[in-house]
Specification:
Elements: E1 2-3, E2 6-13, H1 15-19, H2 23-33, E3 36-43, H3 47-53, H4 63-70, E4 75-82, H5 85-93, H6 106-110, E5 119-121, H7 125-135
Antiparallel strand pairs: 1-2, 2-4, 2-5, 3-4
């Protein structure tokens, strides 16, 4: 799935970031990097969508608390586009565990948790296509 400005990625600004008032800070970092926001919506993730989105993890021990967290409040779903957007966004996020993420990354600067780590982003073109179909079917 591509746009005129390159490939696309799904980004979820998670409930912890919304609760902490970090949505503008996070989106601003993406915009300052030169990425385009092609679509954005404030919404909640229900249990069914969580199971679809995290289908590869449903049977894993860490999934129930992750599902509880992701369904705990509103989040912001974004479609970002730009040159190599998937790789660029993943680099901007930093390590999954905010305690170990490098300074200068979103998680390194703003998170002290492994689970409540502010942002999800597609990790490959294949996952981006699948995730974008779940969250923004009107764009497919």
């Amino acid at each position: 799935m591509t746009s005129p400005s390159g490939e696309r990625s799904l980004v979820l600004i998670k409930p912890d970031a919304v609760r902490r008032g970090l949505v503008g800070e996070i989106i601003g970092r993406f915009e300052r990097k030169g990425l385009a926001v092609d679509a954005m919506v404030l919404r909640s993730m229900d249990a069914a969508l969580a199971d679809q989105h995290y289908a590869d993890h449903v049977e894993k021990a860490f999934y129930p608390p992750l599902k509880d967290f992701m369904t705990s409040g509103p989040l912001v779903a974004l479609v970002l586009s730009g040159d190599e957007v998937i790789e660029v966004v993943r680099g901007m996020l930093g390590a999954t565990d905010g305690r170990k993420a490098a300074a200068g990354t979103i998680r390194g600067d703003l998170s002290l948790s492994n689970r409540e780590n502010l942002v999800h982003a597609s990790d490959s073109p294949e996952s981006a296509k699948r995730e974008l179909q779940l969250w923004f079917p009107e764009l497919v």
